[in-house]
């Protein structure tokens, strides 16, 4: 079927949308175009994308350099099996990522989403211990963590509404208390105790900020101490930088704030500037070497049909070109300052609590009688913002702002004016 902007569809849509309760959700807008920080619908409405379309868009929608790279690659090589073959875009990207990532990460495994990047990391860790004849399978993870929706990543994530229906499929992990302000030592004590109690394969963490868990922030020194404890007990550290990578926290990778080198690092979302699905799992040489053998049973058995898709890799290389050749770090610093200035207006507002910012990410909690992810206020807030031409998707009563780096001061003024209006409409205090 050939479609243009005038295309209409008869009858209800057969589409089943992610994280959507269709019995409660309004009809979604049909988006036709994206440019910079803005989306345009079929009715001509413009929507400010204040959450980077689920945290993926970094430099802006349809960035011309990324679009051109996709177009060029699509006309040259669209896809090739990556088992037993390679291609220029993947080879270049892997080398560039190793050069940019924290020192010591020497190998790059490609996949296609954040969930699979973390799933790969868990399998790498368990496979490493098995292949060096010291089997370990115990995984440690932070309370409130979220790592994806595959079985392994759901198992490692916080148990609750995201995965309650699938509990029989999940494996147990040891959970550490979140290092909330003033309670950081409790987390470190729990990690030390868990490592002493029994051999552990790996500690999986979102470095410095937990995304879907509520944009919860903890200090860099805690991450550094967790690294030290893992070192003392020979536990692998997996950094889930799916959200935090590519500048969200003010550095290219969040681990840089703590000068931490993880044993395994996961990236997705911003890897292609948000244009196409691509993910990587980087690991230390020792982990690769544990799978390197003439014994085929030690092969790392993981793949997807579109591993290292050439078009996606070309988009990622274009993204890295933008980082190399444009003042991206300056844009990120400026965006962080703009966020801080606008967040400050709510610091003495009793209708809000826990104002927090890390790099380009800002969040605050609206004071309501029924907080939490499933609270109806989340849907009401999303609809409230949507009526004002804003794409904001609160986590229950937690409102967060995570825009593309090209957003303007005027755009942010519009976002924060709507947040103030939401406080007038819904808040208490």
TrEMBL record:
Catalyzes the transfer of the alpha-amino group from S-adenosyl-L-methionine (SAM) to 7-keto-8-aminopelargonic acid (KAPA) to form 7,8-diaminopelargonic acid (DAPA). It is the only aminotransferase known to utilize SAM as an amino donor. Its main location: cytoplasm. Substrate binds at residues 54, 146, 269, 303, 393. Its cofactor is pyridoxal 5'-phosphate. This is Adenosylmethionine-8-amino-7-oxononanoate aminotransferase. The record marks 19 as: Participates in the substrate recognition with KAPA and in a stacking interaction with the adenine ring of SAM. Homodimer. Belongs to the class-III pyridoxal-phosphate-dependent aminotransferase family. BioA subfamily. One of its GO terms (cellular component) is cytoplasm. InterPro entries: Aminotrans_3, Aminotrans_3_PPA_site, BioA, PyrdxlP-dep_Trfase, PyrdxlP-dep_Trfase_major, PyrdxlP-dep_Trfase_small. It is found in: Cytoplasm. The modification N6-(pyridoxal phosphate)lysine is found at residue 269. It is an enzyme of class 2 (transferase). Pfam families: Aminotran_3. It comes from the Bacteria. Gene3D superfamilies: Aspartate Aminotransferase, domain 1, Type I PLP-dependent aspartate aminotransferase-like (Major domain). GO terms for molecular function: adenosylmethionine-8-amino-7-oxononanoate transaminase activity; pyridoxal phosphate binding. The keyword Acyltransferase does not apply. Keywords: Amino-acid biosynthesis, Aminotransferase, Arginine biosynthesis, Biotin biosynthesis, Cytoplasm, Pyridoxal phosphate, S-adenosyl-L-methionine, Transferase. Pyridoxal 5'-phosphate binds at residues 114-115, 240, 304-305. GO terms for biological process: biotin biosynthetic process; L-arginine biosynthetic process. It catalyses: (8S)-8-amino-7-oxononanoate + S-adenosyl-L-methionine = S-adenosyl-4-methylsulfanyl-2-oxobutanoate + (7R,8S)-7,8-diammoniononanoate. Its EC number is 2.6.1.62.
């Amino acid at each position: 079927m050939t479609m243009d902007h005038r295309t209409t569809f008869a009858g209800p849509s057969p589409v089943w949308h992610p994280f959507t309760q269709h019995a409660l959700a309004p009809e979604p807008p049909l988006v036709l175009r994206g440019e910079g920080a803005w989306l345009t619908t079929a009715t001509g409405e413009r929507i400010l994308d204040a959450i980077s379309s689920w945290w993926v868009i970094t430099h802006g929608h349809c960035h011309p350099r990324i679009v051109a790279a996709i177009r060029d690659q699509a006309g040259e090589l669209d896809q090739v099996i990556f088992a037993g073959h390679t291609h220029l875009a993947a080879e270049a990207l892997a080398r560039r990522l190793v050069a940019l990532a924290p020192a010591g990460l020497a190998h790059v495994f490609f996949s296609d989403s954040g969930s699979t990047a973390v799933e790969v990391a868990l399998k790498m860790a368990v496979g490493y211990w098995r292949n060096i004849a010291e089997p370990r399978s115990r995984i440690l993870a932070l309370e409130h963590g979220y790592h994806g929706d595959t079985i392994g990543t759901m198992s490692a994530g916080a148990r609750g509404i995201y995965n309650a229906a699938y509990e029989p499929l999940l494996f147990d992990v040891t959970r550490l208390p979140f290092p909330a302000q003033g309670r950081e030592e409790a987390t470190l004590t729990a990690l030390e105790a868990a490592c002493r109690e029994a051999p552990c394969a790996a500690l999986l963490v979102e470095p410095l900020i937990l995304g879907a868990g509520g944009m919860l922030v903890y200090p860099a020194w805690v991450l550094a101490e967790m690294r030290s404890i893992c070192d003392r007990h020979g536990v692998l550290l997996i950094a889930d930088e799916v959200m935090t990578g590519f500048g969200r926290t003010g550095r290219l990778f969040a681990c840089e704030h703590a000068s931490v080198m993880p044993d395994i690092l996961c990236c997705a979302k911003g890897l292609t500037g948000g244009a196409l699905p691509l993910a990587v799992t980087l690991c230390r040489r020792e982990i690769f070497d544990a799978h390197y053998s003439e014994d085929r049973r030690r092969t790392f058995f993981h793949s997807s049909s579109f591993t290292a898709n050439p078009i996606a890799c070309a988009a990622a290389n274009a993204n890295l070109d933008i980082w190399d050749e444009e003042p991206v770090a300056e844009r990120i610093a400026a965006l962080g300052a703009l966020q801080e200035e606008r967040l400050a207006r709510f610091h003495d507002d009793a209708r809000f609590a826990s104002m927090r910012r890390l790099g380009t990410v800002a969040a605050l909690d609206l004071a309501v009688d029924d907080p939490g992810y499933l609270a109806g206020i989340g849907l009401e807030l999303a609809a409230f913002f949507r009526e004002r031409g804003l794409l904001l998707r609160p986590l229950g009563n937690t409102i967060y702002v995570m825009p593309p780096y090209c957003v303007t001061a005027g755009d942010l003024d519009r976002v924060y004016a709507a947040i103030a209006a939401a406080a007038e409409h819904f808040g208490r205090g």
